[in-house]
Structures are given as C-alpha cells and as structure tokens.
Write a structure and sequence with these properties.
Largest sheet: 4 strands, antiparallel
Structural class: alpha+beta
Distance between the termini: 33 Å
Number of helices: 5
Shape: globular
Order of helices and strands: EEHHEHHEH
Strand content: 15-25%
C-alpha cells in the first residue's frame, strides 16, 4: 500500500496530493524521526505520529536540519526524507501537510458512478 502527502492550501482550502512512500518506507522514516531530539524536531514528530502538521515551512526547515545533523543510516530512509523535502517545495509555507493512504483521496468515486447512470 502506498501513502501520499496532501497539502491543504491555507488560502483556498484546496487539497493537493503527491505520492510519498510505501507504508513500510514511511514506517522506517518514522523510526528515524523517533530517534531525533523531540524538542528540535517536534513538527516532524507530529507529522509522523499524528499524520498531520500545519506549516510546511517549519517541516522543511526541520527536515533540512535533521538530514544535515542526523543523517539516516538507511539509504531508503534518506531517500524518503529527501523526497518529502522536495514535495514540500510544492506547497505554500502555511499549508497543512497530511499523510494519507493513496485510496483516501478518492472520496468522489461514488459521484462518478452516479454520472454513468444518467
């Protein structure tokens, strides 16, 4: 199963989805985040543990610092971290970032089926 990062635009409330990682890849990333000093990387910890954090600017800065000062030993964790950092560049600094299952953004599927019946 894959996970996506969803950025909710602070200005207009629109959601933007980007492929993020596999569930196991995200779990390994979370294990790495759990090793970081929580007082310095609280935003990353909240994103991993709660699945959501408002302020992609804060997340970006924390992730840059974490990669520089606490480089992951696992190549796949480092790859996930760099990919997440790249994706955060697409959102506005005040966006809310949420981690969701890839299928969770298909809320309108029922509406599409109704349209076929017309």
């Amino acid at each position: 199963m894959g996970l996506e990062i969803c950025f909710t635009d602070g200005d207009n409330g629109e959601d933007y989805y980007f492929s993020l990682a596999t569930a196991s890849g995200w779990s390994l990333f979370g294990d790495w985040v759990d090793t970081l000093p929580q007082n310095e990387f609280a935003g990353l910890a909240e994103l991993v543990n709660e699945g959501e954090y408002k302020g992609t600017d804060v997340l970006s800065e924390q992730l840059k610092k974490a990669l520089a000062e606490h480089r992951p030993k696992d190549r796949n964790v480092a790859k996930t971290a760099r990919h997440l950092l790249k994706l955060m560049g697409y959102g506005a600094p005040v966006d809310t970032a949420r981690v969701v299952n890839e299928d969770d953004d298909d809320d309108d599927d029922d509406d599409d089926e109704d349209d076929l019946d017309e």
